[in-house]
Amino acid sequence: MNKNETINKLAVFASGRGSNLKSLIEAQKNEQFKAKIELVFSDNINAKALSIAKENNIFTESLDRKNFDNKEDFNKAILDILNRYKIEAIVLAGYMRILSPIIVNQYKYKILNIHPSLLPSFPGLDPQKKAIEYGVKVSGATVHFVDEGVDSGPIIIQMPVPVLDNDTENTLSKRILEQEHIIYPKAVDLFTSGKLTIKDRVVIINNI
Ligand code: GRF
Question: Is the CB of 17 under 6 A from ligand 1?
Fold first, then answer.
């Protein structure tokens, strides 16, 4: 990733309800970042995220993993789509599959993800449930670059959220999600306007 390198064409990947996609679309409309959400991709043809994209006149593409013999072919087909739309960077917003190395390598430090915990605590599935069961007093949300591991790439922004005594997975998830909707557009802005550099695995926010 080069300092000052700006990114214009984004693809958002989403498998489900798409509330982060919705907040990113709003943020783009409010000019919180300059880059354009060119494409929404889903591995789930019934994802609500796809209808949100269509309502907002954003191109959509979806592929069903069941129609491919193996993971590599599926990911190659995704890469073909990304090349066809000349996508410069990917924003994962509730995309429930692990991207294969062919995509991660082509888009090195150009893929963002949001995760509902303070990483490196509780990577993977059900982080809010795990946070409650573990008994942590603070959890939160993390935006990070995607590497080949699970939720393990360099951290861009984190927002803490207290865990209350009477929290359920549902109530904690809701409060974390409110913060996700605030920090993800901010991270997309910092990233797409070329304000981030990475040293070792530490992300530095440069004031240009
Ligand atoms: C969010 O909690 C996000 O952090 C996680 O998946 C969920 C997606 O929610 N990666 P939504 O589809 O954006 O509403």
Answer: yes
